[in-house]
Design brief:
Keywords: Ribonucleoprotein, Ribosomal protein, RNA-binding, rRNA-binding
Radius of gyration: 26 Å
Structural class: alpha+beta
Number of domains: 2
Function: Forms part of the ribosomal stalk, playing a central role in the interaction of the ribosome with GTP-bound translation factors.
Family: Belongs to the universal ribosomal protein uL10 family.
Largest sheet: 5 strands, antiparallel
Strand content: 15-25%
CATH topology of the largest domain: Alpha-Beta Plaits
Organism: Candidatus Kuenenbacteria bacterium RIFCSPLOWO2_02_FULL_42_16
Oligomer: single chain
Protein name: Large ribosomal subunit protein uL10
CATH architecture of the largest domain: 2-Layer Sandwich
CATH class of the largest domain: Alpha Beta
Length: 173
């Protein structure tokens, strides 16, 4: 059943709000996707806190016009279009979609939005290869922690050496 003008306006407003508040968004094109694989895929996205929806191209084009993104990118898309938006992590939508695309040839990247700029599909693929936010934080913390840990071990080594010398002196007497 067709949507009323009011329903379309609500969908458009939600779409604009989602794109405006999201840190990262990825557009995909798909056709012939099986319901079961789509259901599993949607649950993975939900676990990561990613909003996912199939969007009409006309509404997406209006949202792009409102937000100042290039509308011509929508005109070139063939097939059904979906949008995945994350409010927490810029890379998360690209990562989850990339793992899904490896298993399902029916889906492909169409592009994305990062820091309020349009990025091409090949850049979205490259973005998917980057480590996630949590992994980057863990690497940074370990890089900061490593020299301090080494310094503590050096100081502890000197104390251990002193204790060993004192024990050796005690054993001689």
């Amino acid at each position: 059943m067709p949507k009323s003008r009011q329903q379309k306006k609500e969908v458009l407003d939600n779409l604009i709000k989602s794109l405006r508040n999201g840190k990262g968004a990825v557009l995909t094109v798909f056709s012939g996707l099986k319901v079961q694989s789509d259901r599993v895929f949607r649950s993975k996205l939900y676990e990561e806190g990613i909003e996912y929806s199939v969007v009409k191209k006309t509404l997406l084009k209006k949202a792009f016009r409102e937000l100042g993104y290039p509308e011509d990118k929508i005109d070139n898309l063939k097939g059904n279009v979906s949008l995945a938006v994350s409010a927490k992590d810029e890379v998360a939508p690209a990562k989850v979609l990339d793992s899904f695309i490896k298993d399902n040839q029916m889906v492909s990247f169409a592009g994305g939005i990062l820091e309020n700029q349009w990025i091409a599909a090949d850049k979205v693929k490259a973005l998917a290869k980057l480590p996630g936010r949590d992994e980057l934080i863990a690497k940074t913390v370990s890089a900061i922690k490593a020299p301090i840990t080494g310094f503590v071990n050096v100081l502890a080594g000197n104390l251990r050496g002193l204790i060993n010398v004192l024990k050796a002196v005690q054993n001689r007497q």
